[in-house]
Amino acid sequence: MAISYKPLFRLLTERELTKSQFREAIGMGTTQLAKMGKGEYIALELIDKICAHFDVQPGDVIEYVKEPKEI
């Protein structure tokens, strides 16, 4: 996993929103929310919608996590 959505989930907590409320507010499907919970990739278009909804930058909702090198 190279992308983490932890910043987004912290933002939801700060704004006292449940994941379901968030999902419904931006018109996102349950599949995309589940992918985010598993740290899987989602479309950049969805990141754009999230940023527009919260009026934030992409770095405020996702972060890059360096994966350990395999030997």
Automatic annotation (TrEMBL):
Single GO term (MF): DNA binding
Domain HTH cro/C1-type: residue ranges: 10-67
Species in which this protein is naturally found: Paenibacillus algorifonticola
Pfam families xrefs: HTH_26 (PF13443)
Name this protein carries in UniProt: DNA-binding transcriptional regulator, XRE family
This protein's UniProt keywords: DNA-binding
Domain of life: Bacteria
